[in-house]
Structures are given as C-alpha cells and as structure tokens.
Design a protein that fits this description.
230 residues, 9 helices, globular
Length: 230
C-alpha cells in the first residue's frame, strides 16, 4: 500500500488504493460466485417469517426505487445467516454490497465486468474499514451495518462512474448513515435484517446524491467528531 499523503484523508486514500488495485480474471470469477451466493441467500430468505413481512412491505410500496430495492434485497440476503463472512473485519459484505450493486446496475443498464468490478471494490472498502476499526467495535456495533455502507457506496459510485472527489463524498455520507447496535439480541427481534438492508440502501443514496453534487466530510473516518472517534 502506498504511503498516505500528508494532506490526504483516509477516505481519499482508500478510494485511491482500491481504484489502483489490479483486477485479475480470477478476481472477477470470485466476484461472480460471491454475487450468486448473495442472491441465492436472498431467494431463500423470502420464505422466512421476516422475509414474508419484508415482501409485504415491498408490495405495499409498489415499484421500489434503487435504494429501496437494495434495502429489500440486502435484508433478505442476511436472514438465514448463511451469507459470506470476512473474518478479519467481522463483516458480511455480500448482503450489503451485492444488493446495492445489483439495484444500481439494473437501473443504469450496467452488465458484465463493470458490475463485477463494482462488487469487488465494494467488498474491499467494507472489509478494510472493518479491519481498521478493530474487533473491539463488535462488542456493541454490528460491523456489517456500521462498515457496510462504505462498501455499498463504493460499489454504487463505481457503477455511476463518479470521479474520485464525488466518490469520496459518497463514502463520507454513507459512513454518516452507518449504525447497527446489538440490543436486538436481548429480545430476539428481527432488527439484524434491517441492519443489512439499510447499509445497502445508505450507499446507493449517498452515491446518487454525490452524482448531483451533494458533499460529505472527507475526514469522516479520522475526524475529531468522525467515525473512529464515535
């Protein structure tokens, strides 16, 4: 990894790092398998009790925009708890990144390698932020919900072909939306599925706004009132 420039924020460095990484044919093949895994989990999740509720919600809201489509797909993907896990970051990237990339790609007409590359970039961002925050974060925070928005935002930004500056704004504002507390464990509530869905939706919203010029704080990660501090 190249040294971070003195005036470069961590999100700026992350965006540059991921964009510079070579993508091999084997990487694209792995991205395709991870995509199939996520979508298979979403299909299977439909038959569960929370899956039925989520589908009723979707039906009541008619045609969903890309953000809400990503929310629905992300929530369904994480229900059965058989989706992928990146152990070093304690993040399930597939249930966040793939739904966001899928929804944006469908809307924008993106296919093939452009989609798979966006998935790879999203996985990279989510898991790197997860590793950076450390395992202690997991004591109170659901890492998939808290770190996932950085991945969904980068995947969406890639498909929207945002420039580096706009991509930084997308990740910053996605991070501003991150959440995911473990309190639901005490009652066995369905909240965990909301975590995955909202993390996917947050990235789509942040990238769409960034395309229109909506700005975010580049020092969201390391700022005095930023993500790491919180």
């Amino acid at each position: 990894m190249a040294a971070q420039a003195a005036d470069e924020t961590l999100i700026e460095a992350l965006v540059a790092l991921v964009a510079a990484k070579p993508v091999r044919a084997a990487d694209l093949e792995q991205a395709a398998l991870l995509t199939l895994d996520a979508l298979a989990n979403a299909v299977a999740g439909r038959a569960s009790a929370p899956g039925v509720i989520l589908q009723r919600w979707a039906a009541a809201n008619g045609v969903l925009d890309a953000g809400r489509e990503a929310f629905l797909l992300g929530a369904l993907t994480h229900i059965l708890e058989t989706d992928d896990l990146h152990r070093a970051s304690v993040v399930h990237p597939g249930c966040v990144v793939v739904p966001a990339a899928w929804a944006v790609a469908r809307r924008e007409g993106c296919r093939g390698q452009a989609f798979l590359r966006a998935v790879l970039w999203g996985f990279e961002a989510a898991t790197r932020v997860g590793m950076a925050v450390g395992p202690a974060h997991y004591r109170l925070w659901h890492n998939t919900a808290a770190c996932g928005p950085y991945g969904s935002a980068l995947a969406a930004a890639a498909l929207l072909r945002l420039d580096a500056a706009a991509t930084v704004h997308a990740l910053a504002n996605a991070g501003a939306q991150s959440f995911g507390l473990w309190q639901f464990l005490a009652s066995g509530a369905m909240t965990k599925h909301l975590h995955a869905g909202r993390a996917a939706e947050a990235g789509v919203l942040a990238a769409d706004l960034a395309r229109l010029g909506f700005t975010g704080p580049p020092a969201m990660l390391e700022g005095a009132k930023g993500w790491f501090a919180a």
